[in-house]
């Protein structure tokens, strides 16, 4: 929460600073000198990239003993962005993106508490020790807003927030080669060859977070970009008891941007 | 080459995470995993009933008088009072308290000596399992000879209510206050995920091995208790009403098929128990007594079935007896009719 307040105030301060400069600019110098010659006041661009990262706990709980494999899945991002240049160095921007976030993980867990519920009211509570494999692939419509700082004409640094709406969710996998204890650590041991789980429909439908990006022009119209976006809201609501730790979206987007002709 | 890069990336990915792995948590588990008694003291294999935290030993009369010094295997890091290898005597109740390595958890197992004299079962004394709330019968001396499929059903997320389980007590008895009631019930949403659409009620002489309940369900029902003497006839009382619609494993209704119950006794060479895969086919079997007609019986009906001895089979060492009753004959294959109800009471093994 504190981070949120801090970020918001940074954004507000940046915006008002930019606004103040914007207001005083015409009185001091001709406006066009403050707007980069290569960029119009409004800049429109389309972007595409791939997301790499994890939907993971901030700190790995001691129930997770070993990560055997972690792999990004094919998780593309496409989007449209508009920037409003305030002066040569500062701009504000907003975008709309279709963002897929996913990963595959295989890990060894020990005494992991879980409660599995089904729509029909079935409920099983216990602790699992063994192998877990999870496939995550979630699709969001995300709306980032950011303040943009351009130290020179090739570079842009962006800092902001995003809100994201989940429109398609996939969070499923298997537990295998282990055992579950009925009710908790003192319950009887039940061996598991393989059992599957699917928590996709239990996820939070809204995510929001912070994002920071760096971009570099590599041509007249094309830039390469790296955008780190970090969800502040857990993937699952607090009522969800399938695992005893909270997962957050932490993804790095690597991609390209193409600036559309001004209109 | 591409493949090598891919695996390199995956390994680096895993390695990056590995740095964040914390120290292993201390073991919160407190099981007696095995309870080993000198073979010369035993008249049958030791059973550990994990859900009910009860260890049953079948001792020779000398061992019963002298006491035994069991060697325990515990959950990793756990400790026990009394310690493994200490002598125990049966002049007073014997309990083992196991404390987990984490120190946070402990559980107490009760040790019971089973006498081999029980041959008459009237299902008049029932107790409730403490956490999952299913019922099971106890003998007058407090030992547990009968089990059911209930511990397996408990894993499927049924309500924690004795009546939610397919096997329970009923006051609809032939003699005494209670009888054993088995009612085939529908599966749960959770059991449906693993393809189980139906649970038949069952009682059997033996133990339920929860450890195998999900991975190898047919092997989880371990049939038989030590038995002395040579059984001649298997008698008792039952009533049976099949459910309305017979269904196959997938839950499809099969028209024209009526459910039937099964009641049988198997006399076999121990000390290894039979299970759902071999209870009627094992070469350990010496004799069987099987109810041939499992169709409907409105009122309590007596059965009296002679044991048929397998020709050439010989009795040797630790003999055992299994009695099995189920409200759906094919319940082990998850086939039957929901609502089929079997009640049995006053079961007796008449022997020479």
The dominant shape of chain A is elongated
Count, helices of chain B: 5
Main sheet makeup of chain B: 9 strands, antiparallel
Rg of chain B, alpha carbons: 23 Å
Which architecture of the largest domain in chain B would the CATH scheme give at its second level? Sandwich
In percent terms, what proportion of residues of chain A is strand? over 45%
How far apart are the first and last residues' alpha carbons of chain B, in Å? 78 Å
Look at the helices and sheets of chain A and give the structural class.
Answer: mainly beta
Q: In the CATH classification, which architecture of chain A applies?
A: Beta Barrel
With strands numbered from the N-terminus, the spatial order across the biggest sheet of chain A is: 1-3-4-5-6-9-10-11
Question: What this model shows, in words?
Answer:
- Chain A is built from one helix and eleven strands.
- Chain A has one helix spanning 2-28; strands at residues 42-56, 64-72, 76-85, 90-117, 123-149, 155-168, 171-182, 189-198, 206-217, 222-231, 248-259.
- Chain A has an eight-stranded antiparallel β-barrel with strand order 1-3-4-5-6-9-10-11.
- In chain A, a hairpin with a 5-residue loop joins strand 4 (90-117) and strand 5 (123-149).
- The longest helix of chain A has 27 residues, at 2-28.
- Chain B has two domains: 26-113, Immunoglobulin-like; 116-351, Jelly Rolls, CATH 2.60.120.
- Chain B has helices spanning 2-18, 61-66, 150-153, 189-193, 217-220, and strands at 32-36, 42-49, 54-59, 71-74, 79-81, 94-99, 106-113, 120-121, 126-128, 135-137, 146-148, 167-170, 179-183, 185-186, 198-199, 202-208, 221-223, 225-226, 231-241, 246-247, 262-269, 274-275, 285-290, 297-306, 308-309, 319-326, 336-337, 341-351.
- In chain B, strands 11, 16, 17, 18, 21, 22, 23, 25 and 26 form a nine-stranded antiparallel beta sheet that branches.
- Chain B is globular and about 70 Å long.
- The mean pLDDT of chain B is 91.
């Amino acid at each position: 929460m504190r981070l949120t307040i801090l970020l918001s105030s940074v954004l507000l301060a940046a915006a008002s600073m930019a606004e103040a400069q914007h207001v005083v600019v015409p009185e001091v110098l001709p406006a066009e000198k403050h707007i980069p010659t290569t960029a119009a006041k409004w800049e429109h661009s389309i972007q595409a990239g791939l997301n790499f990262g994890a939907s993971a706990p901030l700190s790995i709980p001691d129930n997770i003993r070993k990560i055997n494999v972690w792999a990004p899945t094919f998780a593309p991002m496409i989007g449209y962005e508009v920037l409003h240049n305030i002066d040569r160095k500062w701009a504000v921007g907003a975008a709309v993106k279709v963002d897929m976030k996913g990963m595959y993980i295989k890990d060894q867990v020990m005494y992991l508490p879980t409660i599995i519920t089904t729509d029909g009211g079935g409920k099983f509570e216990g602790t699992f020790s063994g192998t877990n494999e999870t496939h995550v692939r979630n699709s969001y419509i995300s709306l980032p807003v950011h303040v943009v700082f351009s130290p020179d004409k090739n570079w842009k640094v962006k800092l902001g927030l995003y809100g994201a709406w989940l429109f398609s969710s996939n969070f499923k996998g298997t537990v295998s080669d282990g055992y579950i204890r009925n009710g908790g650590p003192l319950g009887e041991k039940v061996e598991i060859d393989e059992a599957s789980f699917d928590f996709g429909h239990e996820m939070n439908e809204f995510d929001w977070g912070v994002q920071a990006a760096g971009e570099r022009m590599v041509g007249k119209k094309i830039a390469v970009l790296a955008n780190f976006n970090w969800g502040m809201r857990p993937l699952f609501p607090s009522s969800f008891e399938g695992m005893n730790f909270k997962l957050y979206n932490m993804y790095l987007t690597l991609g390209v941007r193409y600036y559309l002709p001004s209109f | 080459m591409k493949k090598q890069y891919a695996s390199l990336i995956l390994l680096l990915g895993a390695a990056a995470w590995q740095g964040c792995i914390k120290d292993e948590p201390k073991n919160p588990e407190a099981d007696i995993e095995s309870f080993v008694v000198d073979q010369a003291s035993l008249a049958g294999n030791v059973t550990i009933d994990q859900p009910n935290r009860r260890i049953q030993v079948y001792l020779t009369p000398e061992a019963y008088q002298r006491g035994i010094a069991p060697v325990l295997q515990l959950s990793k890091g756990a400790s026990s009072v009394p310690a493994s290898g200490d002598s125990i005597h049966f002049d007073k109740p014997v309990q083992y308290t196991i404390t987990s390595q984490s120190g946070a958890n402990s559980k107490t197992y009760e040790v019971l000596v089973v006498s081999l004299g029980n041959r008459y079962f009237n299902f008049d004394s029932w107790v409730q399992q403490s956490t999952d709330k299913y019922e099971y019968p106890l003998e007058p001396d407090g030992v547990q000879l009968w089990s059911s499929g209930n511990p397996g059903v408990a894993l499927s997320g049924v309500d924690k209510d004795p009546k939610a389980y397919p096997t329970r007590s009923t006051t609809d008895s032939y003699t005494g206050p209670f009888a054993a009631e088995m009612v085939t019930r529908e599966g749960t949403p959770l059991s449906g995920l693993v393809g189980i659409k139906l649970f038949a009620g069952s009682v059997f002489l033996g133990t339920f091995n929860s450890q195998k309940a999900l991975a190898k369900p047919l092997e989880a029902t371990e049939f038989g208790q030590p038995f002395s003497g040579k059984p001649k006839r298997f008698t008792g009382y039952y009533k049976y009403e099949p459910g309305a619609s017979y269904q196959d494993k997938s839950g499809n209704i099969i028209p024209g098929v009526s459910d039937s119950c099964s009641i049988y006794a198997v006399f076999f060479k121990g000390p290894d128990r039979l299970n759902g895969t071999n209870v009627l086919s094992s070469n350990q079997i010496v004799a069987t007594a099987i109810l041939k007609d499992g169709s409907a019986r409105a009122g309590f009906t007596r059965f009296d079935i002679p044991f048929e001895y397998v020709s050439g089979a010989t009795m040797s060492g630790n003999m055992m007896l299994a009695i099995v009753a189920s409200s759906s004959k094919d319940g082990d294959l998850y086939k039957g009719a929901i609502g089929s109800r079997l009640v049995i009471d006053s079961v007796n093994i008449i022997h020479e």
